[in-house]
Amino acid sequence: MRKKEPFALSAVKKQIMFMDDEAWYWEPNMESFCENVMITTAIFAISHMKYSAKGRLKGKLVSSLHAKELAEQQFSSTFQMLDLYYHPFSALFYNEQERRLGWFRSNGMMADILMGTQTAQEIEDFGVMHGNIKFKFSLARGDDD
Fold first, then answer.
1. What is the 3-state secondary structure (H, E, C) of the chain?
2. What are phi and psi of 84, to 5 degrees?
3. Higher confidence at residue 57 or residue 64?
4. CB of 26 within 8 A of CB of 17?
5. Rounded Cα gap, residues 118 and 105, in angstroms
6. Cα–Cα distance, 87 to 90 (Å, whole number)
7. pLDDT tops 60 at residue 127
8. pLDDT tens column, 84-115
9. Which residue from 19, 37, 120, 122 lies 20 to 30 Å from 140 (Cα-Cα)?
10. Which of 42, 35, 41, 36 is nearest to 16 (CA)?
């Protein structure tokens, strides 16, 4: 049986670190697990917002293997990037004031964005503002909350 080990998020490397014999080390398998948990949590949160939609992007964001940097340049006027999350092919975005979440993914062959907002019009406006992105909406939760 494996003993319990303390762990922490490295502020310098932005990785999960473990302590063993008074020294910190990085375990790649745990990093993948933590990234997947963050992606799953973000997608769950977005899909449970009042309105959520998925869009397919075209252009330079699709063919880039540096999706995070290009997405940050493209969407920084409407979103702030969650910088504690690092993955080369996807990024998490939020706008706290407008209660908006976004998840962007690009793998060199396709690029998608998933958004959650308080009104459907916000999603439509975002699509027009950022290159005529066509969104497919999930079922709206209704206007009675």
1. CCCCCCEEECCCCCCEEEEECCEEEECHHHHHHHHHHHHHHHHHHHHCCCEEEEEECCCHHHHCCCHHHHHHHHHCCCCEECCCCCCCCEEEEEECCCCEEEEEEECCCCEEEEEEECCHHHHHHHHHHCCCCEEEECCCCCCCC
2. -80, -15
3. 57
4. yes
5. 22
6. 6
7. yes
8. 676 777 888 888 888 888 888 877 777 888 99
9. 37
10. 35
Report the length, in residues, of the chain.
Answer: 145
- Write the CB contacts of 71 (distance below 8 Å, at least 6 apart in sequence): 61, 81, 91, 93, 104, 106
Mean pLDDT confidence for 117-141: 82
Model confidence at 52, pLDDT cuts 50, 70, 90, reads: very high
Task: State what percent of residues in the chain have pLDDT above 70.
Answer: 69
Mean pLDDT (the chain, rounded): 76
Which residues, listed in sequence order, are joined to residue 37 by a DSSP beta bridge?
Answer: none
Tokens of 41: 């949590």
Q: Which residues is 18 bridged to in the sheet?
A: 7, 25
**Are the beta carbons of 31 and 37 closer than 8 angstroms?**
no
